[in-house]
Amino acid sequence: MTSEPKGTALVTGASSGIGAIYADRLAKQGYDLILVARNADKLRNLAKAISDETGRSVEVFPADLGKSAELKQVEKLLRTDASITMLVNNAGIGAIAPLLSSDVDAMQSMIDINVTAPMRLAYAVVPAFVSRGKGTIINIASIVAIAPETLNGVYGGSKAFVLAFSQSLHHELADKGVRVQAVLPGATATDFWALSGRPVEHLPSEIVMAADAMVDAAMARLQQGELVTIPSLPDIADWQAFEAARDALKPKLSLGAPAKRYAA
Ligand code: NAP
Fold first, then answer.
1. Closest Cα to residue 119, out of 105, 95, 139?
2. Which residues does the chain have with pLDDT short of 50?
3. What is the pTM of this model?
4. Domain count of the chain?
5. Strands 178-183 and 228-229: what pairing?
6. Which pLDDT score, from 0 to 100, does residue 4 have?
């Protein structure tokens, strides 16, 4: 544990899985915490365990981020609590069923939690971070952001939003002292899978990472200043080639006439 003051990290979806591990690791790095999720009992138990172990201040803020009024309470906290130096946008839900067997209202709820909530929370905290010239936003996306055919398409689309939004935040805010990291986990051993309809035990074990290993890898890359972190990817050159191909497309994507191949 370090004695250097780090301020407070607000972690959404901290009641289980990846978010609970972020909370533990951040407290051990010296952050005080505000833990957000719906399950207040789980949050309180985790808060006590972490503060007993680390001596950090750990507050709980139970909220359903899919409910506009409760989301706005968290936004207000991010706007007004000057101790907050980090936002971890981790809360999220998944789905594995294809469109023809999915309920559109459930898809809308997923967009509320996976897209609207992290977007609004970023909008709430960014002005404060910019005015202080300092702050960190970690957005938990997924590898489905770049492989949307893998699971449910709305889930993939929601995580593609998180990746694109993170890249844009970095583009707009890096020179204003705001650090942004998008984390793209592959399959990670949490309740996410059972809640999505396929218990993690049903996946081939060689594609499933332990949640603590995933978070530790991502946090190590945060220290290195990495914008997009894919904990499973063996060779970073593969991602760099993907980004280089995207960069090469950029000057050719908006021109005054259709490409010759589209001529009648
Ligand atoms: P998890 O164990 O199911 O945790 C999800 C967390 O989100 C829980 O703390 C849950 O708490 C919270 N949450 C869900 N709905 C919420 C709502 N309406 N309002 C507030 N909090 C809500 O799953 P996880 O794997 O740790 O997921 C964390 C993030 O990682 C998600 O964004 C997920 O998309 C992403 N991810 C997971 C995997 C994977 O394989 N596990 C892979 C890639 C990305 P309450 O139920 O108490 O509200």
1. 139
2. 2
3. 0.97
4. 1
5. parallel
6. 62
